[in-house]
TrEMBL record:
This is Outer membrane efflux protein. GO terms for molecular function: efflux transmembrane transporter activity.
Length: 535
């Protein structure tokens, strides 16, 4: 067998190098992505189309964006072929697992329950209150029995508290305690307490209630923030795992080239067509590429373990995805012109939970300021109460029989009012502090959106260059292999070309994965959760 026939026979794997790398750049892709081309102008879409902007068609989910170095089998081919093949783990499945099982999201959801519980506790300040006491003096000069019960209902209307009561006092009382005595069937009373200055517009009970309502509103952005953070990290981990699988496939196929070439080199050496050193040189390549495969396997394992924090079982336990669950290829990136918008920074400012949380915190501070300003006022409470004894008279004349109406005024004021003044100054400083934080949060969000747009656009534009680089590297490698078969090259040059092709294919994988990570970052910067995976 001649040397040319040997290398032609071994070209089954190597020839696929050029053809499959060339397939990375289809005619359609060449039209869509040109070196130096700019995407179409961005459009502003309505809010109800937000999720559709980032949607992926079925064709995009299954279409290959990179056919890396010539293999007939995907990276999962190492699995036992006697077993039923596992379906590939999709991006949507990971996101659904995160939304349903991720511990930090489940923990954040408890903020809603906490806020509801705090609201219930604050409403307790307006519970109907029943008070009562009684006393018996069975021995002594004055023997008597007394009992009374009072019902109060605090309200949110001007801080008013209506009340009603009943009391009864029988026996002998000293003259200075004559008010404890009642007719035989007791005394009924009713009235209202109303603050006129301090406590009229706001008091501690109403402050607690209103703060609790704001707290309920704060729970939603807290949950959304955890969802955005978790799904963004899950997306980064998923695409890192998929890219690691693709790179492992590249390393294995690079190893296959060297191993499949060994037999032909041995025959060529036996025929005197190649020096004995060629066997050693190719064996060195095999060992070196075996080391690269081991390193790539470790990278895949590392990525799979990291992904297991987001990919969980129905019981919520981490599941390390198998190599057999790797997608056969990376999906085709979507033209950024379809989902980037000129007014996306305004959308982000409306959606981002950080802004909403700070705005609600500012609302709470305004409530505290209103309470502190009200505390500067003197306490001036008005109480109006009416009472009527019933039953037979116990004294003559019947001084307990007529209806009684009483009006009370209570006044109290700390002269310096330092407590309220100091609290008000503190709250004014806090309000300014929150306003500055809100300003920086808005500026940071705008910067994140701008940076996200830049990252998406630049990775999209780089695709043209790296695809062409992979195509040219494959063509050069195939040409070098032909030169080797014709005796015009050597293994050193062939190895160099193979390494260049592998590097170009790995770069293509990196850029595509980087593009999808950039899209995930950009979507998170807009504050758009993956609600579509929960439908």
């Amino acid at each position: 067998m001649s040397r040319l026939e040997i290398f032609t026979k071994r070209r089954g794997t190597s020839a696929a190098l050029c053809l499959l790398v060339a397939s990375c750049v289809s005619a359609e892709d060449a039209r869509r992505v040109r070196p130096g081309a700019r995407p179409a102008p961005m459009r502003v879409l309505p809010d109800d189309a937000l999720l559709d902007r980032f949607g992926r068609t079925d064709a995009q989910k299954g279409e290959s964006a990179v056919a890396v170095i010539g293999s007939v089998l995907p990276p999962s081919a190492a699995a036992d072929e006697s077993e039923a093949p596992l379906p590939p783990l999709t991006f949507d499945e990971v996101l659904r697992s995160v939304e349903e099982q991720f511990p930090l999201i489940l923990a954040a959801l408890q903020e809603v329950e906490i806020a509801n519980a705090q609201m219930l506790s604050a409403e307790g300040g307006f519970d109907l209150r029943i008070k009562g006491d009684g006393a018996v003096a069975p021995d002594g000069f004055y023997r008597n029995e007394t009992a009374k019960v009072l019902i109060e209902q605090p309200t949110t209307a001007w801080g008013a508290t209506p009340f009603a009561g009943y009391k009864i006092g029988t026996g002998d009382f000293p003259i200075w305690e004559g008010g404890l005595k009642s007719n035989e069937e007791g005394e009924f009373s009713a009235g209202i307490r109303l603050p006129l200055l301090k406590g009229r517009e706001i008091d501690q009970r109403r402050l607690d209630l209103w703060r609790a309502r704001v707290g309920q509103a704060q729970a939603e952005p807290m949950v959304l923030e955890k969802r955005l953070e978790a799904t963004r990290k899950a997306a980064l981990s998923y695409w890192k795992w998929v890219a690691a699988g693709q790179k492992l496939g590249i390393a294995r196929r690079l190893l296959d080239l060297a191993e499949n070439r060994q037999e032909g080199i041995v025959i060529s050496v036996d025929e005197g067509q190649l020096p004995q050193l060629s066997i050693t040189e190719n064996r060195r390549l095999v060992v070196e590429r075996q080391s690269i495969v081991i390193r790539s396997e470790r990278a895949l394992q590392e990525a799979a373990i990291a992904l297991s924090l987001f990919w969980r079982s129905s019981a919520g336990q981490p599941v390390i995805p198998l190599e057999a669950q790797l997608p056969e290829s990376l999906p085709t990136p979507t033209d950024p012109a379809l989902f980037l918008g000129d007014a996306d920074h305004e959308l982000a400012l409306r959606n981002r939970p950080e802004v909403r949380s700070l705005e609600l915190l500012s609302d709470q501070i305004r409530l505290d300021v209103a309470k502190a300003e009200n505390d500067l006022l003197p306490k001036l409470d008005l109480t109006v109460a009416g009472s009527k004894d019933v039953g037979d008279a116990v004294s003559s004349p019947d001084d307990k029989g007529p209806f009684e109406l009483d009006v009370f005024v209570n006044f109290d004021v700390p002269v310096q009012r330092r407590e309220a003044s100091g609290k008000l100054r503190s709250l004014d400083a806090k309000a300014i502090q929150v306003e500055r934080k809100l300003q920086f949060a808005r500026e940071s969000i705008i910067a994140e959106v701008q940076d996200g747009q830049s990252a998406v656009l630049q990775t999209w534009l780089r695709l043209a260059q790296v695809r062409e680089n992979a195509l040219l590297a494959g063509q050069l490698e195939e040409a070098e292999r032909i030169f080797l078969a014709e005796g015009q090259s050597d293994l050193l040059r062939v190895n160099l070309r193979e390494q260049q092709t592998a590097s170009a294919a790995s770069m293509l994988v990196d850029v595509i994965a980087e593009h999808f990570r950039a899209v995930a970052d950009y979507r998170a910067s807009l504050g758009i959760p993956y609600d579509e995976v929960l439908r």
